[in-house]
UniProtKB/TrEMBL annotation:
Gene3D superfamilies: CRAL-TRIO lipid binding domain. It comes from the Eukaryota. Pfam families: DUF6824 (PF20710). InterPro entries: CRAL-TRIO_dom_sf, DUF6824. Residues 402-485 form the DUF6824 domain. Residues 1-20 are annotated as: Disordered. It comes from Pseudo-nitzschia australis. This is DUF6824 domain-containing protein.
Length: 556
């Protein structure tokens, strides 16, 4: 087991630090279907650990990962496979990939009306060119719900075009695969009405509320949303969930994120796979769900992070399964973090993910669901409002340039609040020089309008319905005025101690000659009868002669 944290990068892609080759396999599905060890119903005991290690040692002797692009290339570990695929990239391609993973200068396509119209037209041509036998669900939606299906709307098709960077052929294949998955999971009604959280059945809703899949309440430093899969063996009911139920929850949450959210469609998502004490019998179900979902996801993942907090043979097997199931495109964007929960959280922070929003208690290692429950309740209220044709103005997640009302360092540290305080500080001198209250009010309003022109919003939490709501210009103006007064008060406080200390030093200032004489009197140069010894060196100049002026001054 590795004590320190280890992340996959260019320098250690061949093998792990301890020199052990990680488990690999050419056909993981066949292996997982054969392995059914007799697990107990609670936790992991020593017998289960011995069984897992024995299965790992038995199968790792003759199983390898074969590269999908080159059938003759065999790799003995997932790290070796990843290193091989990265070495096929040019220096420029690797630089672009690393920047996209870290959220540095993300690639953005400038959308114009001509681009949107041309892409939608080309997408319709590509959909028509696909043989009917390969697009069963799509053809069913066109024949059964020709006028009411959401599949023909521009908003739905633009989701997939943005996901594939306006490549119409890839987007057409993705739409066909997505609709096949929807038909498999939700039936015919899923092709007429776009899926929402309220469409989940009882079993899927139970899995959703457990918090295995969570959308973090914040964004990374580049403004991308974060979707996490937090799997724990302690939640035994989750382990018994079939792949279809997992697919329902996963695809529903991704569509909820992508729908009506152009930022998510353009920027993509950041994915976290956090595994801790899972069972081998569950790996087959996860492999099936991941393999089916990857080709037809409505949004793309810019980066994927695998966090393994219990680094044993089974964890290495899960790592191999995950890297193999996601395919070569996403495998290049995956970083694996090994170590304790604290070490994994620190590693995620280096990629711009805020630690306080990761739903893991680093002390106990348990999963937190408080923010997730708020998200589920908000989505249920939104679906209820849509069903009743009512407006729902709550904002689920603030953007990077929004200014948040409230106290606490998470709000104070929000990027929009940091920029807001910097702006107030730069305008503080002009505000203090304003002659009347009306001028100060006008200046505060001008700052509000300036921020809103830059697409900033003033948001406060909605305690009744959840989420965030945008406040009026008057409330925003009051926040600006309060911020000015707080900065002015802080500036006054910081200058007051300096002034008082300077006055104190001035009042205590003594004539340097008198001070010197007082220090001499305190020394042993005082005579036995209390009179100054005239031969003392204290009253001698540098040439050794007596200095009567100093003696006379000391007697004052």
């Amino acid at each position: 087991m590795i004590n320190g944290i280890t992340s996959t990068n260019d320098s250690n892609l061949g093998q792990s630090k301890d020199g052990n080759t990680m488990y690999t396999h050419t056909g993981l599905s066949s292996l997982f279907s054969e392995v059914r060890p007799p697990y107990s119903s609670f936790g992991f005991d020593e017998q289960e650990k011995e069984i897992n290690d024995a299965e790992y040692q038995r199968d790792s002797r003759h199983n390898y990962i074969r590269n999908g692009a080159d059938g003759d290339q065999i790799h003995e570990s997932p790290d070796a496979l990843l290193a091989y695929e990265l070495n096929q990239l040019s220096f420029k391609e690797r630089g672009v990939l690393e920047n996209d993973i870290h959220g540095i200068q993300p690639e953005c396509i400038k959308e114009t009306p001509e681009l949107l119209r041309g892409s939608l037209k080309q997408l319709s041509i590509e959909l028509d060119s696909i043989p009917e036998k390969n697009k069963t669900a799509y053809e069913f939606s066109q024949k059964t719900f020709p006028k009411t299906t959401y599949v023909n709307t521009d908003d739905f098709r633009l989701i997939f075009l943005r996901c594939d960077r306006f490549d119409a052929r890839k987007a057409a294949q993705r739409i066909v695969g997505y609709l096949d998955l929807i038909l498999l999971c939700f039936g015919e009604q899923g092709l007429e009405q776009d899926i929402r959280v309220s469409d989940l059945d009882e079993r899927s809703e139970q899995l959703l509320k457990m918090g295995q899949f969570q959308i973090l309440p914040s964004r990374d430093h580049s403004g991308r949303r974060i979707l996490g899969n937090f799997s724990f063996a302690a939640h035994h009911r989750i382990q018994a969930v079939d792949p279809i139920t997992r697919l329902k929850v996963g695809v529903c949450m991704m569509m909820v994120l992508a729908r009506d959210n152009i930022d998510v469609q353009n920027k993509g998502l950041v994915g976290i796979f956090w595994a801790h004490h899972f069972r081998m019998e569950d790996l087959n179900k996860r492999s099936i769900a991941i393999t089916k979902m990857i080709p037809c996801m409505p949004v793309r993942f810019c980066s994927l992070h695998v966090c393994l907090t219990n680094v044993n043979n089974l964890a290495k097997m899960a790592n191999a399964m995950y890297l193999y199931a996601i395919g070569p495109d996403y495998r290049k964007r995956t970083r694996v973090h090994l170590g304790s929960a604290v070490e994994c959280v620190y590693a995620l922070q280096t990629f711009g993910i805020q630690a306080h929003d990761i739903p893991i208690n680093t002390t106990t290692g348990k999963r937190k669901t408080q923010n997730h429950q708020k998200w589920v309740e908000l989505q249920q209220k939104r679906d209820g409002a849509i069903a009743e044709n009512k407006s729902f103005l709550a904002i689920e997640c603030p953007k990077q340039n929004d200014i948040l009302f409230g106290r606490g360092w998470p709000k104070m540290g929000h990027p929009g609040n940091v920029l807001f305080r910097n702006l107030i500080q730069t305008r503080l001198e002009d505000y203090n020089n304003s002659r009347s209250k009306g001028e100060k009010t006008t200046m505060a309003y001008s700052i509000v309008l300036e921020l809103k022109e830059n697409r900033a919003r003033f948001l406060r939490e909605d305690e009744i319905n959840g989420g965030w709501i945008e406040v009026s210009n008057e409330l925003a103006r009051k926040k600006v005025s309060i911020a000015f007064r707080c900065f002015r008060r802080a500036e006054t406080k910081s200058n007051k101690p300096l002034a008082s200390s300077a006055a104190k030093r001035k009042s205590n200032q003594i004539d340097p000659v008198l001070s010197l004489c007082q220090s001499w009197k305190a020394n042993s140069m005082i005579g036995i009868n209390g009179e100054q010894d005239e031969g003392s060196s204290a009253f001698l100049d540098m040439d050794g002669s007596s200095n009567n002026s100093i003696r006379s001054n000391c007697n004052v």
